[in-house]
Amino acid sequence: MNPRRIYAIFLRQFYLLRSSPTRVVPLFAWVAIDIVLWGFIARYLNTVSSPSHDFVPSLLGAVLLWDFFTRVMQGVTIAFFEDVWSRNFLNVFATPLSISEYVTGLVLTSIVTSLIGLVVMLILATTVFGLSFFVYGVLLIPFVAVLFLFGIALGIFASALVLRLGPASEWLVWPIPALLSPFAAVFYPLSVLPHWMQWIGYVLPPSYVFEGMRAVVAGQSFSSASLLIALALALIQIVLAYLCFSRVYRSAVRSGLLARYSAESVG
Amino acid sequence: MNVHVAKINAMSDPDIILSVRKLRKQYSATVAVDSVSFDVRRNEIVGLLGPNGAGKTTTINMILGVLEPSAGEIEIEGIALAKQRSRALARTNFAAVYAPLPGNMTVYQNLRFFGLVYDVAELNTRIETLLDQFELRRFRDTKCGVLSSGEQTRVSLAKALLNAPQLLLLDEPTASLDPATAQDIRRSIRDIATHGSGGILWTSHNMYEVQDVCDRVLFLSHGRILLEGNPKTLPGEHGVASLEELFISLAREPLAYAENGR
To answer: Contact A114/A144 with Cβ under 8 angstroms?
Structure first.
């Protein structure tokens, strides 16, 4: 892999962000609104429930981590959509750029853009609502890592979906996190779900994170093996998502879809 | 020509920049390109001509690696595109009227982005040279989307020359230029072909331009090459007054020329 080509994908996104406030604001605005909304909900629930239970670390922490995952996924897809929106596939893929370099560039972009959202959320959650990350201890690191890896996997998969189905399918991608959230045990344990929903939850790495987070907050024991399962699942899903993207790309090259994405006609 | 023999010729002849052999693209029952073979040599501009739907853009897309051939081989400086895509494409670049650069980035940003993708050495110096060469300096920090179509074409050409490609593919590069600018661009590209070390494949519907610029033309119709030759002598050889007349005749009666097809 050529690092200059990977850097080019990142630099392109930086140029676009630098010149466009409409691209910068969504990096933190929606997640900030979520933190404010759920911060007040957690505060209110604290006033009407048992004084021994603090909703801030369980509820607000869950919202923060879920929003972080969403930002990671969208960090990949939005960088990919820039090529869809500017009809740039022909220019980009008729170059020496390899698919692995392109996807790595999208991931690098997502790391930076999602970190911006994470920092804003952390500042708001800790300063305004008193969320202390010491509650989670060192487990916060694997929690964030698993959600990051799953966000990357889903971002690559969603990009493959849009490459395969065309620009209009972008609208299928935006609601994916909301679609997954009932299965991912963000706000409740997996055990409250019907069996078939639990099985879906078991293949979603975030469900292990949120189960673990609730256990830690409640002072219960928590098996580190489940985090290893989540980590392994997320890594496998990244590999599968990459293979899916490569396969869709090769199919698009074979069928002429890639050329038609930019050119009006294949003469 | 036997494919194996042609391959050996391409490998042994360092003057051949692009070697296309028995290229075919089929979509279900439709054959878009059928057994097309040709070379582009060093310092040569080859015109790829034909009516709309003849298979020109399909051929170019296959050479650019964005469309997989159903059969056949493409080699760029002896490097097989199918096997060593990145190495082969590092030696090419292109400008096409239907592939403008992203309008949401400035001229400089676009050139820098593509310069990095093509791994151009001393990129800043190269960008500054091209900004001067295509009279783009005053648009350096202007977003490409607000430039006129002629200015955008010049930016596309500057991008196409970033990596000093050995094989330059130009799909109707002067289609949106005024006659004076088009003439300047033609001269620039002619100079690049004459004084550089690469070859150029050029498509155009402007037969006067083709006659002026190209060393050799290939007439494509229904996915097959029907005629090949010097654009200045070809009309006379076929009993017509001009290349345009030959084009019209070929587009209307391709079967009359099909027996000469390759």
So the answer is: no
Strand ranges, E, within chain B? 16-27, 30-41, 45-49, 71-76, 79-80, 92-96, 167-171, 199-203, 216-221, 224-229
- Tokens 């190209």 belong to B214
CA B257 to chain centre: 24
Q: What is the ipTM of this complex?
A: 0.87
Cβ(A56)–Cβ(A46) under 8 Å? yes
What is the C-alpha to C-alpha distance for residues A76 and A95, in angstroms, rounded to an integer?
21
Residue-wise pLDDT tens digits, A229-238: 999 999 999 9
Q: Give the closest of A4, A86, A259 to B103, CB-based.
A: A86
What are the chain A neighbours of B94 within 8 Å (beta carbons)?
94
User: pLDDT tens digits, residue range B194-250?
Assistant: 888 899 999 988 888 888 899 999 999 889 998 899 998 988 888 888 888 888 888
What H or E segment, with its residue span, contains residue A146? helix A140-165
Neighbours of A45 (CB within 10 A): 15
Contact between residue B45 and residue B31 where contact means Cβ atoms under 8 Å apart:
no
Which of A6, A11, A12, A19 is the best substitution to test chain B (most B C-beta atoms within 10 A)?
Answer: A12
C-beta neighbour count of A116 within 10 angstroms: 16
Q: Which of A12, A86, A94 sits opposite B65 (nearest CB)?
A: A94
